[in-house]
Amino acid sequence: MNPILILITIISYFAVLFGISYITSRKADNESFFVGNRKSSWYIVAFAMIGSAISGVTFVSVPGMVAVSNFAYLQMVVGFAVGQFIIAFLLIPLFYKMNLTSIYEYLENRFGIASYKTGAWFFFISKMLGAAVRLFLVCAVLQFLVFEPFGLPFILNVAVSIALVWLYTYKGGVKTLIWTDSLKTLCLIVSVVMCIYYIASDMDFSFGGMLSSINDNKYSQIFFFDDINDKRYFFKQFLAGVFTVIAMTGLDQDFMQKNLSCKNPKDSQKNLIVSGVLQIVIILLFLMLGVLLYMFAASNSITIPEKSDELFPMLATGGYFPVVVGILFIIGLISAAYAAAGSALTSLTTSFTVDILGSTKKGSDSTTANKRKKVHIAMAIVMGVVIIVINLLNNTSVINAVYVLASYTYGPILGMFAFGIFTKLTVKDKYIPLVAVLSPLLCLVIDLNSEKWLNGYSFSYELLIMNAAFTFVGLLLLTKKTKTEKE
């Protein structure tokens, strides 16, 4: 695909994005940046959340993964929807009642300053690494398609990408993100639907014929109940989906600051329920696209790349389809990637400013505004440095390790919130950081030896549940008696 055409597509896309950003960021203050003034319409937030939840990794990886996992990922996505119901009716009323700017302020109110800082730092580490990896994968694709043909270095690629994300988020914050993410979600949905349409048309499928062919294909199996040691086993996937979304959405500042921008708790609940259901539909479309890609490659004797992530980019931009498919792929990819990166940058700025530096959201506080702007720049620089380091290491196992890290870093946060919500016990706050570090380390030891100790059992994302359980037990051991109990 012509790199100049790709460049024109990207420039046009960001011209629209910056226009929306400029309009929505006028007269933005601290409260607008952090929580969007709590005036967002729930249906707009629900639509925007799709773009935030689906990263560039999802856009590239999910279609390719059907050859290995079939439609098993859908089991986890159904768990996501159930998890969002739990967030809607358990966490949302609590957070609104406490009028939180950062959700980790709950930990300070419940336990003390040590647990508050622990939650904030665990979020910071996991979000920074996760966001950097997601953006790195997209930068790698853009390097191959655009920057390399022009002889431009990867470091310039990263600098441009980070600068673009920083520019459209630096002023408006959450308020801007909700509108720009809505645009990205629209582009994402249109891209995947049109790619399915063009590929099915190229294979002379009618709509009914396409659905029938996908349904009959060996890759379309959804449910796996036979082998508990299989990572696709239903209850592994489903339960992991439930707890993963509770931890990585309900206890994640990135997603929750959008949810908390709704006018009231009921609107926020509607947003979560609708976005959870919509996510099932969108992921199903990606999986269907994956089957069509493999069918197309087989019918045209195209060699399947060793890495499944390369299948969609190769076919979309390799001249196998009309040019419009390549353009739609680029738009969908950058929409997914920059939605995730923009959300992460804003949430990291909010959490670091409010949680770690101890600033407030008051619009009249010019000191907080100046501090927030400096933090925003710093977060962008750190993210860029992490992306460059990942590229220098040039090791796929590093990327996998960062994703696995999310199971370890969100586990203690989930355990602390669960203990705080479901018990009324008080704990020795100063020892909570120790528990938060020991719990994932214990999980690591068990994970490395599980097949030997547990008769061949291999852990998947359910590591998160075990990690949270260890944290919960650790907090039980730190329980201290109240004055009433002593008497």
Short structural summary:
The protein contains 20 helices and 2 strands.
Summarize the helices and strands and which ones pair or pack.
Elements: H1 3-25, H2 30-35, H3 42-53, H4 56-69, H5 73-98, H6 105-110, H7 113-147, H8 154-169, H9 174-202, H10 207-216, H11 234-250, H12 253-259, H13 265-299, H14 311-317, H15 323-356, H16 366-393, H17 396-422, E1 426-427, H18 432-453, H19 463-477, E2 479-480, H20 483-486
Antiparallel strand pairs: 1-2
Helix pairs in contact: 1-8, 1-9, 1-15, 3-9, 3-13, 4-13, 4-15, 5-11, 5-13, 7-8, 7-15, 7-16, 7-17, 8-15, 8-16, 9-13, 9-15, 11-17, 12-15, 14-15, 15-16, 17-18, 17-19, 18-19
Keywords:
487 residues, mainly alpha, two-stranded antiparallel ribbon, ion transport, Sodium:solute symporter, cell membrane, transmembrane
